Amino acid sequence: MRITNVEPILLRGEQSYVATAGAAEATDNGDWQLLVKVTTDEGLVGWSDCETLASVAMACINGPGMSVLGFRCLKDLVIGEDPLEAEQLWHKLYIGTSYFGRRGAAIHCISAIDNCLWSIRAQAAGVSLGELMGRPKIDRVRAYASTLFRETPDAMFEAARHYVERGFKAVKFGWGVFGEDPARDLELVAAARDALGPDRDLMVDPGWYGAGWKGPWRPRTLDDNIALCQSLAPYRVRWIEDFIHPELFDDYAEVRRQSPAPLAAGEQLATIWDFKRLIDGRCVDVVQPDLTRCGGLTVARQVADLADDAGIDLVPHSWLTDLLTAYSLHLVGSLARPVLVEFNVSQSALTRGVCGGALSLNSDGTVTIPRGVGLGVQVDEAFVEAHRVR
Ligand SMILES: [Mg+2]
Question: Model-level pTM?
Answer without folding.
Answer: 0.97
